[in-house]
Amino acid sequence: MIQFMQVSKVYSGGFQALQGVSFSISAGELVFFIGHSGAGKSTLLKLIAAIERPTSGAVRVGQLNTGTLKRSMVPYLRRSLGLIFQEQNILYDRAVLDNVLLPLQVMGMESKAATARAHAALDKVGLLRRGKANPVSLSGGEKQRMCIARAVVHRPSVLIADEPTANLDAAYAQEIMTVFRSFHQVGVTILIATHDLTLIENRSRVLQLYQGKLAQ
Amino acid sequence: MNRWLRQHWLAAVRAFEMLTSSPTSSLLSIVVIGIVLSFPAGILLTLDNLRAVAGQSLESQQLSVLLDTKAASDDIERINTNLEKIPIIAYFQFVSKEVALQQLQQEAELAEIMRNIEQNPLPDVFVVNLEKVTVDEIEMLRTAILSWPKIAHVLVDTDWARKLNAILDLGRIIAIMLATLFGAALVFAVFNMIRLQILTRGDEIKVSRLVGATDSYIRRPFLYFGAIQGLAGALLTWLILAAGIAQINRALFELARLYEATFRLDHFVWLDSLALLAIAVGLGWLGAYVSVTRYLLRSDSI
Question: Which CATH class is domain A26-53+70-208?
Answer without folding.
Answer: alpha beta
